[in-house]
Amino acid sequence: MALTQLNTRVPEELAASVRARAQRAGMSVQDYVADVLAADEEAAEGPEDMRQARARAHAAVAYKRWLGTGRSEAGAMTMDEVFG
Fold it and tell me: Which of 10, 21, 24, 81 is most buried when burial is the number of CB atoms within 10 A of its CB?
């Protein structure tokens, strides 16, 4: 399988967490991140329950990031409204 390089910038706290998780798993950061991305791809193409769980996880991260900006939640949809 051909490999390609992806470059991204993430908050230092996230980078430290990823490094620690990779180390605990006995993996390189490269292999750990590749496995996480592959699992996300599998969930995106998987059965409905996997797609919903994936969407909820992504939404929770986005929500946390939104709150971190200090913006108001006024008028925001609830998770139940988003996912029915």
Answer: 21
